Automatic annotation (TrEMBL), chain A:
Belongs to the ABC transporter superfamily. Residues 1-24 are annotated as: Disordered. InterPro entries: AAA+_ATPase, ABC_transp_ATP-bind, ABC_transporter-like_ATP-bd, ABC_transporter-like_CS, Oligopep_ABC_C, P-loop_NTPase. The keyword Disulfide bond does not apply. This is Dipeptide/oligopeptide/nickel ABC transporter ATP-binding protein. Keywords: ATP-binding, Nucleotide-binding, Transport. It comes from the Bacteria. Pfam families: ABC_tran, oligo_HPY. The keyword Transport applies. The lineage of its organism: Bacteria, Bacillati, Actinomycetota, Actinomycetes, Kitasatosporales. Residues 12-24 have a biased composition (Basic and acidic residues). Residues 29-280 form the ABC transporter domain. One of its GO terms (molecular function) is ATP binding. GO terms for biological process: peptide transport; transmembrane transport.
TrEMBL record, chain B:
Residues 1-28 are annotated as: Disordered. The chain crosses the membrane at residues 49-70, 131-157, 169-191, 203-222, 310-330. Belongs to the binding-protein-dependent transport system permease family. This is ABC transporter permease.
Length: 379, 344
């Protein structure tokens, strides 16, 4: 992963807009107890529901106006489902989604119409997110057409403008998606999302399908868009590296639940949840320039994420946690501000870790096979 | 602030992707994109066999379309009973006197035994009627396939379950037997068995019967395609923008199922032609004096047995073989052009 170290820009800790300030802005999106269970069908000859995939199980989050909020977690932990619930591509099983104070959890297509243009989405797969039969111009002007928006100077002019904003040649509006590379396609997707001048963009792993060398460019573009147009982002990613450059606040998800949330500094330098520690130790070292940077801890997690159909009792992380105790199986840890946490930094763990990422006396390697391998490699 | 965007000062971003712009190599090219359809057309034009078979197929359709005109120029029509008009051409058994089924400068393809119809015009009109019926069946099945297939795939749930079970049920019916058995039944729905059956009733019955058991394969394919398309992110993008279902089906789904529709239709049409011919051959399709491609075979077959004369099999047989082969080759080429990855 050395390549990533080089291409990803260093985190901007000293930003014009301070993290605290961002927290004080008025909330744009408020999610409370959001739940989505997918029924599992089975049985023969009569198919019936035999179980529930607890894809998202009661999450709370708030995104302020113009804020970039990162949502991080391993594959299958319910990030996309959360994004789709917020954009109302899915109907929530429970909980509440409010946008600007308006409850949209079960709003119909018609009821949603007025705010449709304000919440947009950027998708993960640039090869499936653009209709291969439409020209770039059609793709980008589609949302304007649907919402009956006729910008000054016509839609075509606006399409050219948007193409220019996302760094594509504006003359390419009558080309077809197959004539563009993955990175360029993702830029087209960004232009489409911007066409309606949204206030909130849900970006579902917008760069994870791209070449590492192109990822940074697209992230930069998104960041620029976010700042200049003052758009709030819910940025979904599967590792903490990408989000670090982008989000003022970060939530870590595990098996349908948020296990830790806080501002960037808290999550990256003072994490408390064991899972966050584990995720962070997987992030490549970014601070290349600082020689004085202390050695970081190393944690290897064992096994796979348990099935969301029958998640572990109590703390869902306990099957892979090195601190798991009886209490963890019996009692679900609440997401609260534990002593030592900064304001707004919430952790769901009975036995939180020290708020540091410095190297431990002994690496945590839970997988015996891996441990043997590493020993062999060193010896 | 160390990232590259900040250095740019927040102005209009320059193109930063590492990959080349589509026009970068040729500065002079006008930036007009080629649609997937245009690309397929280009690929198709390069396929010699496909182009030739397309011409052959077009020729057959032209012949069918222009049959009345050609007959007029030729000066005959398929309904004239030459056994009465020109009895000198036939022997006492009603067989043309001249060899090879009475082929002459006047009757290019000869005369039929019995009533003595002119084979050439009969073949022209036979092609016309057969192709017309098959085209109608194809249109009806394609429309049904689109409506039911896309509905099942896109709506899913109960609709899908219901339509899929109907498809399963209809696929379980033995088609040939059903056609033969149901044709008289369907016809008798319109006219009492004692009356003369008008031609249009037989035509409608032929179309209806074949349509009834003809749409399922396309319906199934379109169901699968729409099911896959439904999961594609561009559909979700349209939904996020607030697109109503009608628009999503029209603008996002249908343009993407044109390929399987065209490919499937080019496979279906020749099948309908042979099926229609088969029914008329068995006497449950179009009957004399209405000219029909398949019915010409039944006449020819009788003659082949009775007189040991293959002449009457020759013209309808050769023309139909050419047509079916050309159409199937065309179907292959269309599929190859649309989907260059699958090998033949
Ligand atoms: N339509 C659906 N029907 C049934 N189960 C689903 C459906 N969509 C998602 N799931 C399940 O819900 C869980 C969460 O899925 P989700 O796509 O939200 O994960 P994710 O965090 O986005 O993962 P990834 O990083 O792989 O995209 C998974 O176990 C998945 O199998
Ligand atoms: S609650 Fe227990 S099992 Fe869960 S993360 Fe904390 S220590 Fe580990
Ligand atoms: Mg996902």
């Amino acid at each position: 992963m050395t390549q990533e170290d080089v291409v990803l820009p260093a985190p901007r800790e000293a930003e014009g807009r301070s993290e605290a300030e961002a927290g004080e802005r008025e909330p744009l999106l408020v999610v409370e107890g959001l739940t989505k269970h997918f029924p599992v069908k089975g049985g023969f000859p009569i198919r019936r529901t035999v179980g529930q995939v607890q894809a998202v199980d009661g999450i709370d989050l708030t995104v302020a106006v113009g804020e970039s909020f990162g949502l991080v977690g391993e594959s299958g932990c319910g990030k996309s489902t959360t994004g789709r619930l917020i954009t109302r591509l899915l109907e929530p099983t429970g909980g509440k989604v409010s946008y600007r104070g308006q409850d949209i959890s079960h709003a119909s297509r018609r009821e949603l119409a007025p705010i449709r243009s304000e919440i947009q989405m950027i998708f993960q797969d640039p090869y499936s997110s653009l209709n291969p039969r439409q020209t770039v111009g059609k793709i980008i002007s589609g949302p304007m057409e649907i919402n009956g928006i006729e910008p000054e100077g016509g839609r075509e002019k606006r399409v050219r403008e948007l193409l220019e904003i996302v760094g594509l040649n504006p003359e390419h509006f009558n080309r077809f998606p197959h004539e563009f590379s993955g990175g360029q396609r993702q830029r087209i997707g960004v232009a489409r999302a911007l066409a309606l001048e949204p206030k909130l963009i849900v970006a579902d792993e917008p760069v994870s399908a791209l070449d590492v060398s192109i990822q940074a460019q697209v992230v930069n573009l998104l960041q620029q868009v976010q700042r200049e147009l003052d758009i709030a982002f819910l940025f979904i990613a599967h590792d903490l590296a990408v989000v670090r450059h982008f989000s003022q606040r970060v939530a870590v998800m595990y098996l349908g639940k948020i296990i830790e949330v806080g501002d960037r500094t808290s999550i990256y330098t003072r994490p408390r949840h064991p899972y966050t520690h584990a995720l962070l130790s997987a992030v490549p070292e970014v601070a290349v320039g600082e020689d004085s940077a202390p050695q970081r801890e190393r944690i290897r997690l064992a096994g796979d994420v348990p099935s969301p159909i029958s998640p572990p009792s109590g703390c869902r992380f306990r099957t892979r946690c090195w601190k798991a105790a009886e209490k963890c199986a019996a009692e679900e840890p609440p997401l609260v501000r534990i002593s030592g946490n900064h304001e707004g930094h919430l952790t769901a763990c009975h036995f939180p870790e020290e708020p540091t990422t410095e190297a431990r006396d002994e690496d945590i390697v839970l997988d015996p096979a891996l441990a043997a391998l590493e020993d062999g490699g060193e010896g | 602030m160390t990232s590259s965007t900040d250095i740019e000062g927040g102005g209009t971003p320059v193109l930063v992707d590492g990959d080349t712009e589509p026009t970068a190599e040729t500065g002079t090219r006008v930036p007009v994109g080629r649609s997937p359809g245009q690309l397929m057309w280009l690929r198709f034009k390069r396929d010699r066999a496909g182009v030739i078979s397309a011409y052959v197929v077009i020729l057959f359709f032209l012949v069918g379309l222009l049959a009345p005109l050609i007959s007029q120029l030729y000066g005959k029509n398929p309904y004239t009973v030459y056994a009465d008009e020109r009895p000198e051409l036939f022997d006492s058994a009603g067989v043309p006197v001249q060899p090879n089924g009475g082929i002459s400068g006047e009757f290019w393809f000869g005369l039929e035994p019995g009533n003595g119809y002119d084979v050439f015009t009969k073949l022209l009109y036979g092609i016309r009627n057969s192709l017309g019926i098959s085209l109608a069946v194809t249109l009806a099945t394609v429309l049904t396939g689109i409506v039911l297939g896309v509905a099942a795939g896109y709506l899913g749930g109960r609709t899908d379950f219901l339509i899929s079970r109907v498809i399963d049920f209809l696929l379980a019916i033995p088609a040939q037997l059903f056609f033969i058995a149901s044709m008289p039944v369907v016809v008798s729905l319109f006219v009492s068995p004692r009356d003369e059956t008008p031609v249009y009733v037989r035509v409608v019955a032929l179309i209806a019967v074949q349509w009834f058991l003809g749409w399922m394969s396309l319906g199934r394919i379109l169901r699968g395609t729409s099911l896959a398309l439904r999961e594609r992110e561009f559909i979700e993008a349209a939904k996020v923008s607030g697109a109503p279902p009608g628009r999503i089906i029209r603008k996002e789904i249908l343009p993407n199922v044109v390929t399987p529709i065209l490919v499937q239709a080019t496979y279906m049409l020749p099948n309908f032609v042979t099926a229609e011919a088969g029914l008329s051959f068995l006497g449950v399709g179009l009957v004399e004096p209405t000219p029909d491609w398949g019915q010409m075979f039944s006449k020819a077959a009788t003659e082949l047995v009775m007189q040991n004369d293959i002449t009457y099999m020759f013209f309808p047989g050769v023309s139909m073989i050419i047509f079916i082969v050309a159409f199937n080759l065309l179907g292959d080429s269309v599929r190859d052009a649309f989907d260059p990855k699958t090998a033949r």
